[in-house]
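FIELD: query
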Amino acid sequence: MLIASTRSVATFYCVRRNLYFAYYIIKPYLFFSASNCLKGLIALVSINCFSCIFAVHAQENFTGDALAEPFEIEFSLDDGEYALLRASQQSADYMLQLRHARTQKTLSVVDFSSYLGLNEVLIVKSSDCTECVLILVPNKSIDLDSPYSVTLKKSLIHAESKKRLRALLHLRVAGEYVAQSSDSEENDVNENLRDAVTELDKALSLLGDEHRDLGYHIILTKSQLLFRLEQSNQAKLGLNKIVASSVGKRSLFRAQALFEMAAFEQNAEREMEMYIEGTEIAAELGLHVVQAQGMNYQAIRGIRNSDFNTALASLNDAYVLASGEKNWRRVLDILHNLSWGNLRAGRFTKAVEYGTEQKLLAEHYNDEENVLWALYNLGLV
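FIELD: result
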């Protein structure tokens, strides 16, 4: 196998002909609490005097070096408010759980794969809860020792945001179906995944060019579910749409779409070009784990072409990047390919060294699949 101030700033803007005026109100506005985190928020309120659109934006960030146990964030919502929560999955795989703060009732659990490095996203409305608790849960023990980052952004619902809000609600329901699939009987898993795809299609039908990034996020998410359902042709349609409509753009979405489509490319030269472009985009954006992913893909092609020196050097650089970000899932993939590549190159001592390192790391995190893959390479030496 190849493997962010403690006060709110409210600003009111009114425009009439060429007259602009603004004034600021400083006041406490929101309640957040989270252990071991700085507490702060910035709120921006804008009013259009003629269309009566009222919007509030407040944001707080929570970060840490490791997540030895689930991490809780308490927040409140006023009537008509919603919160958008994003958890980075660049270094680990997380689930987001929403509970009612007073009753402790679980209101939602969403769980999309971290494979493409997309954020775990959860939208919360005041009708869900006014006193809420978000719980960030590591998916497996391998995700405990990685840095985490969660962003909470609050807004009032206004006319311009309604379609985006509805799309995010469909994304939430899709994430709930995926979470359910983890506990489903084998025959029910595909039904859960198909229901999730249906929700993502509903979300996409609501989005135009003004919400392109959210659309790309949903298309990539949908593609992963379609691959699990063995509907690769349908998955490729969405991925091709991202590649074709993002030419010249530098984004995670384009990089990952290139990586995914390269796997189906029949022309070896074009395949490598796609891997290289995606890797360069990731490097420019400082997405080290995605950069390491691209270098890993390039190296696999190089090893198959017997270009061992270049490929193994690329894998070593990828190992440094992934280890620096403490993405142990990616590190295990790279170690496997370092063992395999050195085996193919006849460098048996190195093959054993990397295979043993993969096995020990996998055993540390109780990753039985990676233990078996490490043993597979070691058994070939």
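FIELD: remark
The radius of gyration is 23 Å.
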